[in-house]
Design a protein that fits this description.
alpha+beta, 11-stranded mixed sheet, 11 strands, 20% strand, elongated, DUF2971, DUF2971 domain-containing protein
Amino acid sequence: MVEIFYGGNEKYNAVIGHFFQTAVNVSKKIKTDGNRFVHYTSADTAYKIIHNKELWLRNAAVMNDFSEVSYGLECLKAARASVAGHALTNALNSIDPSIITEADDLFWKWLPFFQSDTFLTSFAVHEDDEDDIGRLSMWRAYGNVAIVFKNDAFVNPGPNPIEGVTVSPVSYFNAKEAGDALFQMAAAIEHNSSGFRAIPKGLLVSNLFRAMRFSILANKHPGFREEREWRIIHSPSHDASPMPRLLVTVNGVPQHICKFKWPGLNGDKQFIENIDRIIIGPAEHAWVMRNAFHDLLASNGIPDAARRVAVSNIPLRR
């Protein structure tokens, strides 16, 4: 579907992956465990997502966590100023002293655009025992319908990635944990110094810059850890992409959104096929909504639509 973590020559990805070790490890575990992904939202938005077969990426500034981006930036700055940050600088300097300087120059040049011009949408890792009830904290925070997507929709992006769009797991690091990640990166560079020296400097610079970028775009306060969030991320100023950017009104707030659709000629069909189930959360008219979403799935060619729509019995009042 989209590019995961890092791009470039596959020949070097095993080494470059050390810049993204936390994300790589999470992705491997998700792929092994076969977890699905779930998007909690309002019934109105869930209907539009399925009917239009598209997702809207919204500006990070309007997301529910008011510290989006700024929290990750503060963690990165603290980690870089720590003993761990100095260890990383020394490890990179042993390869080429200009790597860290050039990556830093790129990062600070683009930071204002990442802060103001980053669009994303979010998913949570879904567990099997949540199939019929969902997750209480998510019902409280995000809405009354959950769209559960199959594992392959995220971990096996297929041959036609959408240019300029990245899917990434979210970390929940505090400053110390961010520093620990830098220590691990420094140790990996020292241990694989010959492998890093074999990679063109430009590729090292661009991926170190990319790692710094996603350390601020995909890191949240540890208080959100139970969400186990993944994000689809796009920064139009930096990333060329065919995705349309539109001006719309959401909850009375005029704003730009980026319209995300599955790639390829059969993208709409693939979008529907990737829907594993719908969970209707606590709502006054839950069974009316259940019947409506059943008919919506059935009208889109899902033969076992009745089995795919559940009504949560969590006793939460709205």
